[in-house]
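Researcher: Next sequence.
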Amino acid sequence: MPVEMAPTRGFTIGTPNQGSPNNLPALRLDSTNMYVCLCTGATSHVVADAVANGACTSKEVAIACGAGTDCGRCRHTVRSIIESYFKARTPVPVS
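Model: Next structure:
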């Protein structure tokens, strides 16, 4: 029986609860969310949430969500997300 899914901006991978390991739901990917760590499956939203909840270094992000704990190839991207988060929250001086 086909499963109806809500429309998304991106695309859907897999069918919910059918044919995926451990019957996990389908994943939705769009232009604002990408995989950062393929080893752990951490996405940019997961990393950004870790930073928003107080993680200030790649090591703290790794503790919070696992991104960067395995091979380490994603640490540069994790640091970029941290930097972008804090740049966006730093007030720009008015001249």
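Model: The two ends are 63 Å apart (CA to CA). Confidence is low (pLDDT under 50) at residues 3-30.
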